[in-house]
């Protein structure tokens, strides 16, 4: 470990970017709002560059602890597909971003809500109200559109996009991403990290929470934050298998010291880019050989490692932020600079 690089989790190789965008076709875009008391934003994950409504991707979600206000999970559970990009934002921005997703889908597919069924927007959230004036409801539909238009292969991390106002372990949290190669496939993860108490932090296997709590001099309290974990893979998996993969994100989360506390919203979603499911009934359904159940273990390990690594990256890349009413979150490396020397 060096001062110029974050610690590495596990021994599986990472992709070329060590990001969710190592999974072919996946792209990520941010829109960051950083102005005084407004410290928030939107992050968008595109599963492929085409029309997601007409060419849906298989997906499944797992709710580890349901203290959250996401939208769209019921239909994902029922049908096992995504039909919009995945959006991340703050708690009070969910409705606005969902409406923006609906408008974007209609613009691309004018038959939605007329000759075709309606569309299922998918928005995940965490509460950034400590740093961000969440009551101002600063996120607008145009912010989703800008994040979507900005989607690309390079992923900024830390206090950007939806992660701008997020906190983790009493310090600055935010966006983190990572990838691992296993079983001949790529598994990538992106997290919106807004969880954890200082004393519980385990950083790349090192229990540093006690030292961090001392530096922060904060009173101990219950975990009230949240985390959204998105896992992508190019392995051909069906929705049932993807639910199993999403569940392993919880392993990576637990390694960092989380117990999925009472006030925490911990949600994982996994999707595959190996094939698409057509919207129109006259188009043939894909006939894709799925990965055998007995060969899923390497993917499970890759999901766990990439999620843990993504959380480490969110902490490592985060910069200090001052926001609403002068509230401040320091960066982890600012408080524990010796992490790079242990």
According to CATH, what is the class?
Alpha Beta
Q: Percent range for helical residues?
A: 10-25%
Uncertain runs are none
Tally the beta strands.
17
Radius of gyration: 19 Å
For this structure, the CATH topology is L-amino peptidase D-ALA esterase/amidase
CATH superfamily: L-amino peptidase D-ALA esterase/amidase
Mean pLDDT: 95
Largest beta-sheet details:
7 strands, mixed
CATH architectural group: 4-Layer Sandwich
Structural class of the secondary structure composition?
alpha+beta
Proportion of beta-strand residues: 25-35%
The figure for the number of domains is: 1
Number of helices: 8
Please render the helix and strand layout as text:
Elements: E1 27-35, E2 38-46, E3 55-66, H1 73-79, E4 81-82, E5 86-90, H2 94-108, E6 123-126, H3 141-149, E7 167-168, E8 171-172, E9 174-182, E10 185-194, E11 202-203, E12 206-207, H4 209-216, E13 226-233, H5 239-247, H6 249-255, E14 265-272, E15 277-278, H7 297-317, E16 321-322, E17 328-329, H8 332-335
Parallel strand pairs: 5-6, 13-14
Antiparallel strand pairs: 1-2, 2-5, 3-4, 3-14, 3-15, 7-8, 9-10, 10-13, 11-12, 16-17
Helix pairs in contact: 2-3, 6-7
């Amino acid at each position: 470990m060096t001062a110029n690089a974050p610690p590495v989790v596990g021994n599986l190789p990472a992709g070329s970017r060590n990001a969710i965008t190592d999974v072919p076709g996946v792209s990520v875009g941010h829109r960051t709002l950083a102005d005084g008391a407004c410290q928030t934003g939107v992050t968008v994950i595109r599963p492929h560059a085409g029309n997601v409504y007409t060419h849906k991707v298989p997906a499944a979600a797992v709710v580890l602890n349901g203290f959250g206000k996401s939208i769209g999970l019921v239909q994902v559970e029922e049908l096992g597909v995504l039909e919009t990009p995945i959006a991340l934002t703050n708690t009070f921005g969910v409705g606005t971003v969902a409406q923006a997703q609906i408008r974007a889908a209609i613009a691309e597919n004018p038959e939605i809500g007329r000759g075709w069924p309606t569309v299922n927007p998918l928005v995940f959230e965490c509460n950034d109200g400590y740093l961000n004036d969440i009551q101002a409801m600063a996120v607008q539909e145009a912010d989703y559109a800008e994040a979507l238009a900005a989607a690309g292969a390079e992923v900024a991390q830390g206090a950007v996009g939806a992660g701008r106002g997020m906190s983790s372990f009493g310090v600055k949290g935010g966006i983190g991403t990572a990838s691992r190669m296993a079983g001949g496939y790529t598994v990538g993860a992106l997290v919106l990290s807004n969880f954890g108490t200082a004393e519980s932090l385990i950083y790349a296997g090192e229990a540093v929470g006690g030292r961090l709590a001392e530096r922060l001099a904060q009173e101990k309290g219950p975990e009230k934050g949240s985390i959204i974990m998105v896992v992508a893979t190019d392995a051909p998996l069906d929705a049932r298998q993807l639910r199993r993969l999403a569940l392993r994100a919880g392993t990576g989360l637990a390694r960092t010291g989380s117990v999925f506390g009472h006030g925490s919203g911990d949600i994982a979603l996994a999707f595959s880019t190996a094939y698409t499911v057509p919207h129109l009934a006259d188009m043939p359904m894909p006939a894709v050989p799925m990965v055998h159940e007995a060969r899923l273990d390497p993917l499970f390990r890759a999901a766990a490692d990439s999620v843990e690594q993504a959380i480490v990256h969110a902490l490592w890349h985060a910069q200090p932020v001052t926001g609403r009413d002068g509230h401040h979150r320091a960066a982890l490396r600012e408080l524990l600079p010796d992490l790079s020397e242990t």
